[in-house]
Amino acid sequence: MTRAGNSPMIGQRRAKPTFAxxxxxxxxxxxxxxxxxxxxxxxGRGVYLQVVQHDDLTKRGDARTLRxxxxxxxxxxILDREGAVLASSVPARxxxxxxxxxxxDEKQIASLAQILGQRTADVKKKLxxxxxxxxxxxxVSTEKADAVxxxxxxxxxxxxxxxxxxxxxxxMGQVLGITNVDDIGQEGIELSQNEWLSGKHGAxxxxxxxxxxxxxxxxxxxxxQQGRDLQLSLDSRVQxxxxxxxxxxxxxxxxxxxxxxxxxxxxxxILALVNYPTADPSDRSAAANGGLRNRAxxxxxxxxxxxxxxxxATAIDTGVLKASEQxxxxxxxxxxxxxxxxxxxxxxxxxxxSVLEIVQKSSNVGTARIAERxxxxxxxxxxxxxxxxxxxxxxxxxEAHGRxxxxxxxxxxxxxxxxxxxxxxxxxxxxxxxxxxxxxxGSLVDVTLFKNGGVGRQARVYSPETTQIMLPMLERATHRDxxxxxxxxxxxxxxxxxxxxxxxxxxxxxxxxxxxxxVGLAPVSNPRYVIAVMIDEPSTGLFYGGxxxxxxxxxxxxxxxxxxxxxxxxxxxxxxxxxxxVAAIVREGN
Amino acid sequence: xxxxxxxxVHEIALGWFTPRTLPTTKRANAAANGIxxxxxxxxxxxxxxxxxxxxxxxxSIASASEAKFTRGSASYFFAxxxxxxxxxxxxxxFVFDTSMKSWERVAPxxxxxxxxxxxxxxxxxxxxxxxxxxxxxxxxxFGFQPSEMMxxxxxxxxxxxxxSKFDVLHADQPLKQSLLRGLGPFILIALFVSVLLLREPDxxxxxxxxxxxxxxxxxxxxxxxxxxxVLVVGLLAASALVIFExxxxxxxxxxxxxxxxxxxxxxxxxxxxxxxxxxxxFGMGLxxxxxxxxxxxxxxxxxxxxxxxxxxxxxGVVLVAASYGWITWRAFKIGxxxxxxxxxxxxxxAQGIGVLFGVQSMINIAVNMGVAPTKGLTLxxxxxxxSGMMASLVAISILLxxxxxxxxxxxxxxx
Lengths: 590, 415
Known about the structure:
The complex is a heterodimer. By secondary structure, chain A is of the alpha+beta class. Chain A has 2 domains: 67-104 and 128-231, Penicillin-binding protein 2a (Domain 2), CATH 3.90.1310; 236-588, 3-Layer(aba) Sandwich (Beta-lactamase), CATH 3.40.710.10. Chain A has 22 helices and 21 strands. The radius of gyration of chain A is 40 Å and the shape is elongated. The relative contact order of chain A is 0.10. Chain B starts with a helix and ends in a 5-residue tail after the last helix. Chain B contains 15 helices and 3 strands. By secondary structure, chain B is mostly helical. At the A-B interface, helix 1, helix 2 and helix 3 of A face helix 9, helix 12, helix 13 and helix 14 of B.
């Protein structure tokens, strides 16, 4: 480029005007000011976005970047009466995956599956899910979670959880129940006391990255409220004793199942409540199959002869029967409106049996003849006062009420069968509770699963005098000539009653399927414990309550009395003194 | 050994690094001669480079420290970008040492080389595909983008074309002549380049390269009778694309209402808008941004402006926009001075560089702010990327060279 030589002359046509001559400055200015105007517009847009729309855009952004994370509150512990831990929540982790962000090679997936104890194919399937987020595992121990974290797989996230641990495993299973993965009670005490036990989760706000990882803590929104501990009336030691002996009894008799209840006769506290078979609440799969059903509370059965003492006591209490009376046995059978009641063995002598013999040897005919003297309403009222026909309200969920039909609808034959425990149904706790009336000078104690400081609400059922008469009769049932000599406990006086009920199958009672039971109390001189044992369908050929349930009772009672160092009240088994006392009552004719 | 301009740079550098308490002869010399470089331009470029490095670091810490290919190094992108800047500055020194006469001479060859590379990159096996676009020629651990080279090549080529074909470009002749001999050949070449770029595809580079080329011709005095038809034909061609393939319509105008597809196609843009809006006036503070935590894809490249706006607020936005505005303004100013000195090639090159910086930064910012369709353009001097950094520093260096030549000419020296 060289400087143009001459400036163009007007009117002179030049073939080639120079660049400089043709250059138009306005075009350049148009371009440069166009560009600068563009920048000005962009700054304007910046003001609009960052000042005018600042709040709106920030809010929209927060919706994606801020999360309220729950701060889990731990669930309260469940303790036994001595403070031993029956259930507690320990920190655990849930493992989440954001499938579209997971980057893992085969080896990583394999080790992940190994840590979680799952199959590689299953883990892969979860990681390939088209859901936004999936749980790989829940309630995983912190150690395992740390191992997962060490794999450094992007797209995985841990969440704080609690895992419920039950140190007593299957021994307490049906009482304690179970929580779900979210630590919410599903069965048993965990369910009924969920409100008390569960804490209130807190929340804190965090800033997360798109993969869900926490970038920054923004502070607490709500602090968590920890759950409260719950103390049960159960005594772990008694529970273990009862469990072991029940298990032995069920297995020895090849029975379908069984249950046992140990009550503190004064306070009404349930010291042990066991079932067999059972399940470990830590093992959710076993628990899910109904293994945690508490049969002692939730299932009903026809009690059979264990009801007889209530019929007799009612008759004595109302004065329609004297303890010294002799009841006509009508040849061991008694026909009422077509149906015939029979005794399985002959009771009494010379066609008559004493009241004592009827109870001691468990005569259906004798009991039915006594019940005949009672008006329907009166007998019904007494049964209700003894707690039949309504739930025992132990604080356990799903209590069965028990069936006791309205007195107006009783036909004579029905009243007769009810007098010896058919045509009505009870659960085992209800039955055990009814026997506290005999242990407490005629007063029924409210039973409870919670520690109550040794005082339970009491309600009078029979007069103390009536129980004074009843107790020796029940004690005689445990003697050599009673139905349950195997219920005896060395060194203590024991009273109780056997029950052997045919099971109702459809609408008929069939031979071969029995519920054997025994309910008793000790020591008779100052009753401390009431124990009820029920064995469902023993199948070795032995099926009487005295053969099947009484030995379990004897073992549990003996070990419980020894455990609490209860003073002996009999120097040797089968104390003669007791027989003397009964003889005196019979003689006196009260 | 060193040529004259490099000696000057050396002297100036010595002057900077010499303690001010101990003035040396060289320092005195530099002061006596006056600084022969556009210092405001150098400062603004330095500012953008520093800010860019900072923002590349800030916006990539989270992703780099967790990604596999970085081996968990948080400073992976920062280190590479720093290296790019250093290499770019070294290259810029040599560019600065190259006279505009040499550039004018080699412009067609450089352009031919750029075209060749654009063809090469399209050949599978040579060009590397990233995110569905075949834009890179792998060079060891780095990648070379011929489209970035084409931006410079097009400016040089168009400037030389305009100067040498000046006789047949302007309106002093029959329209037929200016169309067939002036604009025609250039349009054909530009279309060929466009087709190559669109094959990658790289819409952003196509737009920038065409803007630079056509605006240089326009500023050089293209026959006014052709200006309107070129615009009309361009618009018609764009409309035709949209009409024949309607899916493009939504893709192009989707940016107008990104919230409609907040979690779909509008995702990146809504994240960018939220990032900018979140920044407010003063910003969230350097490093305190949220969007870079995987929310905003391409945070360290195409959307580095959004992260800057988020962390530095409106103040940062104004600073950045003003900086690019200043570079654009200085480029045109240097071009005007070159024109005064009858350096018409240099003048058009300087203005072309002004267009390059102005258009590319403006479109990038506009995309970030949701006022232009998403194109895939980086922010010159700031976005992460070696080829882009190289091209930007070469362009700035050419600009400084033109400015230096202007000053030399003004003092009566020859260049």
